[in-house]
Amino acid sequence: MAYGAHRSHLVPPHPDLGLARDCEQCLGWGTLVTRDGDHELCHMCQPDPVDGEGTAASGS
Ligand SMILES: [Zn+2]
Q1: Source organism's superkingdom (predicted)?
Q2: Model pTM?
């Protein structure tokens, strides 16, 4: 078994378990494991990571 060398140690993201609690997609884990074995935030319950300047969400 040879692991891909393009990524060394991938640190799992930190999901909000409060949001993931009732999620049927990730079953409360907040993260999903891809077919490559990588952990990524659940797209169903976890908000997208804010990268620098966040878009001003105008709540109506
Ligand atoms: Zn989820």
Answers
A1: Bacteria
A2: 0.57
For 48, the token pair is 């997208």
Q: Give tens-digit pLDDT for 10-26.
A: 666 789 999 999 999 99
Q: Which residues, listed in sequence order, are joined to residue 40 by a DSSP beta bridge?
A: 32
What is the Cα 23 distance to its own chain's centre? Answer: 13
CA distance 35 to 59: 37
Q: Which residues surround ligand 1, an ion (CB under 5 A)?
A: 20, 23, 25-26, 42, 44-45
Distance 39 CA to ligand 1 centre (A): 12
